[in-house]
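Annex B. Sample input.
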Amino acid sequence: MLEKRKQWADEMGLNGEVIKALYADLVNYFIAEELKEFESK
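Annex B, continued. Sample output.
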């Protein structure tokens, strides 16, 4: 999924590496939030 986002960004004239890192950060954040929710139950 991250490589796909990088490719999309590159095709749109954006910095693919930055977009890939941004999506990776978002995924990691939401996974961490879900784990917090899961562990609190």
